[in-house]
């Protein structure tokens, strides 16, 4: 999508870090295993794949092996009606270079019985083949799905990785795995949108003679194996000529129905977990900007390099009732490096 035009936005919020921040799960609920002897490299760690830092690449030493790899999470959500995951994003990876494919699986009994999720849709950099997602490029991937087994088998989730051919062709690198829920906002924001490029890594100082000197601690974010949101069939050196400046977006949403704005029951676990509304998914599950999320400018367009923003909520939105059961609000988003 050229020019990053705003349509009806869609957001992708990670449930795992939301649960982690609440103390519902901890690092003992995450695991990495393989069907053979493949393991993480010495300087890599299972939690590094869930730290929401796509530039913090973790390496799995699997080159020339044929092991099946399992990245598993126990959410401790045992109420079937509270299942809420419907997307997985891997920000920063070299699946093509490593000759790897992945599948999303879920279970209620730690995979004594395994169910792969249903109705899988390849949104960015993936082709679905026999239940597996096969990325056509290095960079990043995004897939959505629905729960094939109704509201069952939602406690344990895992990413299953296998060679796309007979063996892996390189060590696998993974930046950040997100698993959570999408929400499509009810409509596009108001016409007046403010966009800014902020150079908060640049400091300026004026000398006693009136001259200005500047220094840059950083001008852009770190790469995610490739430049952020880039896709390539080859390993490329991050381009020094890439975008600089941190994006900021300020937009207002008017005339939101209360059913699209707030959960039906605010003070209950079911209300928050099952809510598909503005407050639950954008404010509560990011803890008001504590956790970043994936923002899609227009939910109908999926150019993997120009349709998304990795960002945080940068304000505490206020809600104004403008008619019976109708609300306005304003959000400010700041790009995450």
Write a brief caption for the model.
The protein is mainly beta and 337 residues long.
Notable characteristics:
single chain; 337 residues; mainly beta; Jelly Rolls; 5 helices; 21 strands
What does this structure look like?
It contains 5 helices and 21 strands. It has 2 domains: 2-182, Galactose-binding domain-like (Jelly Rolls), CATH 2.60.120; 194-335, no CATH class. It is globular, with a radius of gyration of 21 Å. By secondary structure, it is mainly beta.
Annotate the secondary structure layout.
Layout: E1 10-14, H1 15-22, E2 30-34, E3 58-60, E4 69-74, E5 87-93, H2 95-98, E6 100-107, E7 115-116, E8 118-124, E9 127-129, E10 132-134, E11 139-146, E12 156-163, E13 172-184, E14 194-198, E15 202-206, E16 212-216, E17 246-257, H3 258-261, H4 269-274, H5 278-284, E18 293-296, E19 308-313, E20 319-323, E21 326-335
Antiparallel strand pairs: 1-13, 1-18, 2-4, 3-13, 4-12, 5-11, 5-13, 6-7, 6-12, 8-11, 9-10, 14-17, 15-16, 17-21, 18-19, 19-21, 20-21
Q: Would you tell me the structural class of the helices and strands?
A: mainly beta
Distance between the termini: 21 Å
CATH-level-2 architecture of the largest domain: Sandwich
The number of helices is 5
Shape label:
globular
Please outline the major beta sheet: 12 strands, antiparallel
Tally of separate domains: 2
CATH topology assignment of the largest domain:
Jelly Rolls
Low-confidence stretches: none
Query: What share of residues is helical?
Result: under 10%
Q: Could you state the order of secondary-structure elements as H and E?
A: EHEEEEHEEEEEEEEEEEEHHHEEEE
Number of strands: 21
Briefly, what CATH class of the largest domain? Mainly Beta
Instruction: Provide mean pLDDT, rounded.
Output: 91
CATH homologous group name of the largest domain: Galactose-binding domain-like
Radius of gyration, Cα only, in angstroms?
Answer: 21 Å
Q: In percent, how much strand structure appears in the residues?
A: 35-45%
